[in-house]
Amino acid sequence: MASRIESPSRRRIVFLVVAVGLSVVLTAVAVLLATSVGASFSAGLSANAPFSPTEDEGVIPAEAPLTVDDDRHRAMTGLDAELRDALRSAQEAAKVDGIVFDVTSGWRSADYQRWLLGDAIRTYGTEAIALQYVASPEGSSHVTGRAVDIGSLDAQLWLIEHGREWGLCQTYANERWHFEKATDAGGECPAAKADARG
């Protein structure tokens, strides 16, 4: 049986074809890695970029809570209309008892909510604990404009006792200041969830 001997030129051609093929594959891999790393790097930069929430994001200064009648501040104008109307009607009734609702938080942008969650994670040390007190942007009723926080204890207690007449309910057991329009006027409030995790 005669053995087949390859010529030197044929071996060079095979070598060149294999080398070019490997070069194309390695170049494609390098481009994909560079694109992926670049995208991750950009995302990391934007995620860690300084963010300072403003009134346009829904921030209400601690020293200047809003009234339910405010029709200029984004935290109030961004609220669901039914919630805002219910709050205003309840406020009229509460005035008879000398109670004034001081709104410390209403509508919030998703960026502001994300910032609040990040701050809670730094405060409590873990995301699991932070989520008990601050919902994610995707799960927050503030971001959808369906929640409001009331500052004074008297107003909170008044709403806990009388709010259901306007459909206003305390929705988290660990947040007596957090109210949502969670039922029809005069209806029964649903059982409060344990915390912001739902």
Describe the structure in your own words.
It contains six helices and four strands. The protein has 198 residues and is an alpha+beta fold. The chain has a four-stranded antiparallel sheet. The longest helix has 41 residues, at 8-48. It is elongated and about 105 Å long.
> Rg to the nearest angstrom?
29 Å
Q: So what's the oligomer here?
A: single chain
Number of helices: 6
The level of helicity is: 40-55%
Biggest β-sheet strands, sense, barrel = 4 strands, antiparallel
Order of strands across the main sheet: 1-2-4-3
Structural class: alpha+beta
pLDDT < 50 stretches:
33-47
What overall form do the CA principal axes indicate? elongated
What's the total number of strands? 4
Q: Could you spell the SSE succession in H and E letters?
A: HHHEHHEHEE
Strand content: 5-15%
Q: Nutshell version of this structure?
A:
This protein has 198 residues and is α+β, with helices and mostly antiparallel strands.
Q: Which labels suit this protein?
A:
elongated, 6 helices, 4-stranded antiparallel sheet, alpha+beta, 9% strand, 198 residues
What is this structure's SSE topology?
Blueprint: H1 8-48, H2 74-77, H3 81-95, E1 103-105, H4 110-124, H5 127-130, E2 148-150, H6 153-162, E3 168-172, E4 175-181
Antiparallel strand pairs: 1-2, 2-4, 3-4
